[in-house]
Design goal:
Number of strands: 10
Strand content: over 45%
Radius of gyration: 16 Å
Helix content: under 10%
Strand order of the largest sheet: 1-10-4-7
Shape: globular
Number of helices: 1
Largest sheet: 4 strands, antiparallel
Order of helices and strands: HEEEEEEEEEE
């Protein structure tokens, strides 16, 4: 039992940021950009970034296309990525965890940050439909790779 607790605690120490933002109940509008701010890091290094997504059965598509813009501060260097999220398998079954609400995690990138760097992450969807129902929350998780 003690080994399990130690393992869980050591995994959580590697997580430097894990935050979700709710999406409007009426749906995620194409003009609604979600912004996340990671405070200055005490210790730099290489960090694995993941996008988290929570959906309901009301989401009408098998995938989701996201535009993720990241700005490292204070250097003001910006990187823009397109993330294609597959929500169902070839067999049509949902890939996410859950029964009526589904949780997904998608690897975005590994990013190198220096001591004292902070990060601003902006996420918007890039689907043809203006308003996407069935998405409840979008989040960012960063874990130290060291």
């Amino acid at each position: 039992m003690l080994t399990v607790a130690a393992t869980v605690m050591s995994c959580n120490r590697k997580t430097v940021y894990d935050h979700y933002q709710p999406v409007a109940q009426e749906g995620w509008n194409k003009d609604d950009t979600l912004t996340f701010t990671v405070r200055p890091l005490a210790k730099g290094g290489v960090f694995k970034e993941e996008i988290g997504l929570r959906t309901t059965g009301d989401y009408p598509f098998m995938g989701l296309c996201l535009i993720v813009e990241q700005t490292v501060l204070p250097s003001d260097v910006t990187r823009c990525d397109t993330l294609r999220c597959s929500l169902t398998g070839d067999d049509g079954n949902v890939k996410g965890r859950g029964l009526s609400c589904y949780q997904y995690r998608f690897h975005l990138t590994n990013i190198t940050l220096a001591d004292g760097d902070s990060l601003r992450v902006r996420i918007r969807h890039n689907m043809r439909r203006e308003n996407l129902p069935g998405i409840t929350d979008v989040g960012i998780r960063m874990k130290s790779e060291e």
